[in-house]
Amino acid sequence: xxxxxKVGVDEARRIAVRAQLLDGxxxxxxxxxxxxxxxQMDPIATVARPQELVLFSRLGRFDVAQLDRLLWQKRxxxxxxxxxxxxxxLPLQRARMARRRRGxxxxxxxxxxxxxRENARLRNYILREVERNxxxxxxxxxxxxxxxxxxxxxxxxxxxRLMLDMLxxxxxxxVAGRVGTHRLWDLPERVWxxxxxxxxxxxxxxxDGETALLCRxxxxxxxxxxxxxxxGGRQGLDVSFTLSExxxxx
Length: 250
Hints:
The protein has helices at 9-19, 29-36, 50-59, 65-72, 90-102, 107-118, 120-133, 160-169, 200-208, and strands at residues 4-6, 39-40, 77-80, 83-86, 174-179, 182-186, 213-220, 224-231, 237-244. By secondary structure, it is of the alpha+beta class. The strands form three sheets. A four-stranded mixed β-sheet has the order 1-9-8-7. Helix 5 crosses helix 9.
């Protein structure tokens, strides 16, 4: 664990701003993603896609196509579970995928196992088609959904879209590119470089550090709080500082 450095509130603010690259120190798309740890992504854009807005807030005007080149051509970044990560973090995410394949004892794990069991034919069909003909769009895959099946707000009618997301989360298929807002699916070994898979306990410790700001607050009378935070992701700095009632304003 990193040593804790005690600082004042003003310095803590400056550290947090710099750790988030909001101080003008940002240098390029790839450098941003590596230092931030990840970008949350969404293909839907009201003004611009969220991942582009995060980069714009740090870089100003930039070549938006560079992000796609880093993802789909140079493979310096990869998409997983609605996030964009630097490829160096692939061993960590593979540990997460392996954990999802193993499952657990929570109700959601039981529901997942039941869903996969009930839709084993669809699962095998998707994996076979992706292996033979990938990369494929979801519309390239056929599903025999009952006509009277109620349409779900998130994954539509039938189990196809949910199955694709589930297989992707388990690392059995991967996003190989995009056609507009639609994902292209392929086998992971044809998309990602070969890497190790870390043991889950080791990966979990590393993944905890990916959070840009971790906070532990303890109460100390009178009306005073001690905060310990980590800024700057896994390679960041642990700092602690005291907040009094005055720091929150009236």
